[in-house]
Design brief:
single chain, 2 domains, five-stranded mixed beta sheet
């Protein structure tokens, strides 16, 4: 669990996530309310909460839902697409040409003003869209 919190701190500058809301289930990291976790003690559920992070052999991947839940806490590796047309292209599934020398290559949280849109992979020249097809806006 410590590695997960280190990932959030190093990658996104998120250091104040309450650990009592976080659990590991089926190898991934989930977040839940205290109430749901308390109910889980008495009733058997398949899952409680929302998948925050997918865990892979070579690292972690913040999910779209995870970004939307904790993205407001991020202090770095956040892209603000202030242009609403670019934001619409992104949530429709398009990759976005984008350059920012202060941004680290790798996972970034993408937002439009205060709204968290999802996650992208930044390669130094573009944002490679990571929003699942099922969550994209279709025109």
């Amino acid at each position: 669990m410590k590695e997960f919190f280190n990932f959030l701190l190093e990658r996104f500058g998120i250091g104040n996530l309450p650990s009592e809301h976080v659990l590991i289930d089926r190898g991934d990291i989930w977040i839940s309310s205290k109430q749901a976790l308390k109910i889980r003690e008495n009733i058997k559920f398949n899952r409680v909460g929302i998948r925050l992070i997918r865990v892979f052999k070579n690292g972690y991947k913040l999910t779209t839902a995870g970004a939307q839940i904790i993205g407001h806490l991020a202090k770095k590796n956040v892209v603000n697409l202030k242009d609403e047309n670019l934001a619409m292209q992104f949530i429709s599934g398009s990759d976005i040409n984008y350059m920012d020398e202060n941004l680290e290559k790798g996972q970034v949280i993408v937002k439009c003003n205060k709204d968290i849109l999802g996650v992208a992979i930044y390669d130094g020249e573009k944002l490679k869209n990571q929003i699942p097809r099922s969550k994209r806006i279709v025109k």
